[in-house]
Amino acid sequence: MPIVDGLDPEGSIWHYIAITLREQREQRNLSGNKLAQRIGCDRSYVSRVENGRIHLSRAYAEKIDALWETRFAWLVKLAEASDGGDWFTGLVEHEERATHHRMWEALIIPGLFQTEAYARAALAAGLAADIESALERRLARQRAVWERPNPPHVSAIIYWPILEQPVGGLGVMREQLARLLELGDSPNVTVRVLERSVGAHVGMDGSFTLLSFDGRDIAFATAPERGRLIVVPTDVQQFQVRYDRIANLAANRSASRALIEQAMENYR
Predict the structure, then answer these.
(1) Which of 112, 125, 199, 204 has its C-alpha lying 20 to 30 A from 137's C-alpha?
(2) What is the CATH number of domain 13-82?
(3) Which of 42-56, 130-144, 172-186, 222-236 has the highest mean pLDDT?
(4) In angstroms, rounded to a whole number, what is the distance separating the alpha carbons of residues 78 and 62?
């Protein structure tokens, strides 16, 4: 992929779009002026996009997709969400479409698995200013995934301290762990635990999710205040490798179930 000076495709979706547009145009032996004519824009527009001076608009991205059967409009939508700080909108949309969710969670029961009581207690700890609105968004995310006609396959690996961290009291935790077991019994869901005995591991860097759809993967890395969507293939691959390394260390499905059942006994 040709790299333009000053552009960082690994750090910016907009830069990735600019570089990819140039690459796709050159593969088709088109000049910038020829492409501009075909999509009906100013002669300098394509050059300015490819040099990172302006952002590709969604309208022109859709015209390019129609010409080349590419996915520039999708990338523009991701970039707009990321720039506006609205990474959550992008995450929710892709959760709804994904056919496979792979998640590593180091701190808290994954949002898609949370009971209403557990979610409310977690949000009340300071994770949201408007608890009820945030709770409704979380429950809506769950409905969009679990109540689909063809629910996705979901593979979750959780870190052992999550089972021992009481959130919302004994009853809330017991209900939450029972929910984990219930979902884990579904043929399309796998819940595994990374045990204390594993010691240091690559998952200590933080929680993340991999979502698969339309023949591609994206990643979402959790961070305080704001998460990060990752769409550049080389960056996504790093999360895929990290997930595989964590999965190789996690207890198997039946052993993980036994660990969750054992943890439930502490919340009587």
Answers:
(1) 204
(2) 1.10.260.40
(3) 172-186
(4) 14
